[in-house]
Design goal:
alpha+beta; 11-stranded mixed β-sheet
């Protein structure tokens, strides 16, 4: 433009000053001198001295030396050609130098001084090879002028790693055009699609972001910058840091049993998964996200501290971790702050799942490792491997145990459903034990069978005692029927049995079995279910009773839901026999059946027979109405035909009644006339606490 302007303007002539002859100084002639003398009255002629005058130097204008600057001091045509030549030289040399060297260097300097800060970003709608990325970005323009940047293809490089010190190329995106203010910050809101070309490199970078690392991204590309209406080419090589997406405080709550699937042999549970995100990075539009669940049985030992449990059962995955199922998270979204997502958990009916559900029902906190996603895309799948804390249920599967003389002393015949007979109290024909109560933590009904628990008292007991058999005063001469005149005094002249029980906290083994509903004439086998009615045509068989006595399944009724949505657990109860635990060694004297040495009266020795009464007597000394026990064992959980062996270990109170403190082996209600004439048993006064129990 400057060159064109100069060519259109008329040339300006350059004038060099010339001296005319009129300006020269000369000496007057003789006639002139004579005339001048006569005019001024001089009589005698005088001869004027001749003076040699130095010729005057020509006057020169500044900047104009004729020989040295002849192209500027010559003609108009010569001057114009001179200027044209100079401008042509500038156009051919200096303008390209400025345009292609100096301006890009200045732009590079300004770009290098420009900082980019990502205030927040959103990743959404992932596909097999791409995902949408939008952000709020602050760019601090170091240049004095505002500018417009054209859209350009940007190559995205991951962080430096081994074998790639400048980072691997992980993908590309089209950066939309944007405008920047001069000499200050400007905020832009770009939204584009990131196309991933190296899924493995992107995956490694994403794992670091989820672990809480601030990961640098480098962007390169070629664009055009417009400033003051003039376009300038621009090479971009700029690094920025995406905020980390560390998710913490993972927890699973509000577990609800949905159903069982016999085709896949899985239990389906609905639950809420919550976690916290401190990051301004959002994730949305992921739809259904699947993750695998892993459980370490030994690492979740209830005796471990939370820190030890996290170390042993948390990530990374080790040989002890067993896959227990899969978690489906619906409408997966992550925002800054607390997040809660509805999930459906598909649990495989295996050993790890049984241990986990049993411990959950036992109120134990646990750590589960989740790995995912598993269904989104190759560059995202598997980027997360984290610990998920699962607090124990607030409602235990078994809540308490109740012991009375009816369950502990009298018992029920599992074959007839009637109380045990005096001469038929053997192990196969009389079940004596305790009543166990529990609650259903779920809103739907399910079932339990094959219960087997070993129960230990929380405190050890050491004692000795005497089992007395004596005729009630005034009844000594009463004849015993069918004995040919034998009196009660003669028949029950039995010496006292002394026994001692060494230090032990073993109570016994409880288990479910057919006949467990003998003492429950109104028992129902489940919601909407019933036993067949008695057939009036079969007088010697009660079909209803036989079905009840053959039933060894415990229905767990569904919890009720109040009008405000509050879950109200429903309780259930069952009576299970208590037998000695095989293999337990206790220092005892007087082993053998405790009641007169007759197995048909009571098959257990005096220590097994008296241990609960001894514990109740010790508790009564300090005014306690309950004894604390821990029961550990297993049971089979049944949901819609899917069976799962669950293991629980529950600490629960055992409530006793006063008749337990006075163990009457022949109560009148059960043994009729014999119970009115003979006392056989022991009480708190007949027990002497020694050793650890003497304190």
């Amino acid at each position: 433009l400057l060159l064109l302007l100069l060519l259109l303007l008329p040339p300006v002539p350059l004038h060099c000053r010339q001296y005319s002859m009129s300006e020269r100084t000369s000496i007057p002639d003789e006639k002139t001198l004579e005339r001048l003398r006569s005019d001024y009255g001089q009589a005698k002629p005088r001869v004027a001295p001749l003076v040699a005058l130095r010729p005057e130097e020509p006057h020169s204008e500044p900047g104009c030396v004729t020989k040295a600057h002849r192209y500027f001091c010559g003609s108009v045509k010569a001057t114009s050609y001179t200027m044209l030549a100079l401008l042509s030289f500038a156009a051919l040399f200096w303008i390209p130098m400025i345009w292609y060297v100096i301006i890009p260097a200045v732009l590079d300097m300004l770009i290098g001084a420009t900082s980019i800060n990502i205030h927040n970003a959103t990743m959404s709608a992932p596909t097999e090879t791409s995902m949408r990325v939008s952000a709020v970005v602050e760019i601090n323009n170091a240049g004095p002028f505002g500018c417009d940047v054209d859209a350009f293809n940007a190559t995205v490089h991951g962080p430096p790693e081994e074998g790639a010190p400048s980072g691997r190329t992980i993908g590309w995106m089209v950066v939309p055009p944007f405008t920047l203010k001069g000499n200050g910050p400007g905020v832009i809101n770009p939204s584009t699609v990131m196309h991933v070309t190296d899924a493995a490199a992107f995956n490694r970078m994403a794992k670091r972001m989820l672990n809480g690392d601030a990961v640098p991204w480098r962007m390169t590309g070629e664009s055009t910058v417009w400033s003051m209406g003039i376009p300038f080419p621009l090479s971009i090589d700029k690094e920025t840091t995406f905020p980390p997406i560390q998710l913490t405080n993972y927890a699973t709550s509000n577990l609800e049993m949905s159903h069982g699937n016999t085709t896949t042999n899985q239990l389906v549970i609905d639950a809420d998964v919550s976690f916290y995100s401190a990051s301004p990075m959002r994730l949305e539009g992921f739809g259904l996200l699947k993750a695998e669940l892993y459980y370490d049985v030994s690492g979740n030992n209830p005796d471990l501290s939370p820190a030890e449990r996290l170390k042993l059962a948390g990530p990374p995955l080790r040989a002890g971790h067993v896959k227990m199922g899969e978690c489906h998270m619906y409408d997966y979204t992550v925002v800054q702050g607390m997040n809660t997502i509805k999930t459906r958990i598909y649990l495989d009916a295996n050993y790890a799942t049984g241990q986990s559900l049993g411990r959950w029902a036992s109120e134990f906190d646990q750590t589960i490792v989740s790995v995912g996603p598993t269904n989104i895309s190759p560059f995202i799948d598997g980027i997360w491997e984290g610990a998920n804390d699962m607090p124990g249920s607030s409602i235990t599967l078994y809540t308490a145990t109740f012991v009375t003389a009816d369950t502990l002393v009298k018992g029920y015949n599992p074959k007839t459903g009637e109380p045990c007979k005096v001469w038929d109290g053997g192990i196969d024909s009389c079940d004596r034990g305790s009543t166990v109560m529990g609650m259903n933590p779920f809103k739907r009904e399910w079932f339990i069978k094959d219960i087997e628990y070993e129960t230990y008292l929380e405190q050890e007991y050491e004692y000795s005692g005497t089992f007395l058999t004596k005729v009630i005063p005034g009844q000594e001469n009463v004849e015993v029927p069918f004995t040919g005149g034998t009196t009660v005094g003669d028949l029950f002249n039995i010496p006292a049995v002394s026994f001692s029980c060494g230090r032990s906290n073993v109570l016994g083994r409880t288990f479910s079995k057919p006949g467990m509903w003998a003492g429950y004439p109104n028992h129902s086998p489940g919601v909407g279910l019933s036993y067949p009615p008695d057939d009036p045509n079969t007088t010697d068989v009660d079909e209803n009773l036989q079905a009840r006595l053959a039933d060894d399944v415990i229905p767990v009724p569904p919890a009720r839901v109040a009008a405000d949505g509050t879950k109200i657990p429903t309780s259930y109860s069952l009576t299970m026999p208590v037998h000695p635990i095989p293999g337990t060694s206790v220092d005892r004297s007087g082993d053998g059946p405790c009641i007169w040495g007759l197995k048909n009266l009571n098959p257990f020795d005096c220590c097994m027979t008296t241990i609960f009464t001894a514990a109740a007597c010790k508790a009564a000394e300090s005014g306690k109405k309950q004894i604390t026990v821990r029961s550990s064992g297993s049971a089979v959980m049944i949901v819609d035909g899917v069976e799962l062996n669950i293991s629980t270990s529950i600490r629960m109170p055992v409530t006793y009644t006063k008749d337990v403190l006075q163990f009457d082996a022949i109560p009148p209600a059960s043994y009729g006339v014999l119970g009115h004439v003979v006392d056989a048993g022991f009480g708190c006064d007949d027990l002497r606490f020694t050793g650890v129990s003497a304190r």
